[in-house]
Design goal:
Layout (H helix, E strand, L loop, with lengths): L8 H34 L9 H9 L3 H39 L3 H5 L3 H9 L15
Helix pairs in contact: 1-3, 2-3
């Protein structure tokens, strides 16, 4: 945000928030889709077509066959979660590599410009005495 001129800081902040929110939503959707697809694909035998919740409910009602359904569903769930986490880690590594490659060094972009620093100080509101905390002894 320090690279933007004073009047454009609000626009930059809005764009930053929007891209962060969109990235979060897309990340959850994509990683969740990968995990669900891997879970569904890994299910086999009697566990096919059961959700993890259904497998847990079946296991609580006893019987070795139902315990086997639960064990199969648990393995498939772990497999799906592992693939989802790996996809997230790969996306994070790629984003890190791109940021390191294309973003300017922090020292060059973080130095405030003197004219802008003075301009923002002059528009900063004074502290409102109603909201100032007074320490009591």
């Amino acid at each position: 945000m320090s690279a933007l001129p004073g009047p454009k800081i609000g626009i930059g902040s809005g764009i930053n928030d929007s891209t962060r929110n969109l990235g979060s939503v897309l990340g959850v959707a994509i990683i969740g889709s990968i995990a669900t697809s891997a879970y569904t694909h890994a299910l086999g035998g009697a566990a096919a077509g059961h959700t993890m919740g259904q497998a847990v409910a079946l296991a609580h009602h006893g019987g070795p066959a139902r315990q086997a359904i639960f064990a199969s569903a648990a393995r498939a769930f772990i497999h799906g979660a592992d693939l989802g986490i790996l996809a997230g880690a790969a996306a994070t590594a790629l984003a890190t590599a791109l940021a390191l490659r294309y973003l300017p060094p922090a020292a060059a972009s973080a130095a405030p410009r003197p004219a802008e620093a003075r301009a923002t100080e002059s528009i900063r509101p004074a502290a409102d005495p109603r909201f100032v905390s007074h320490a009591r002894s």
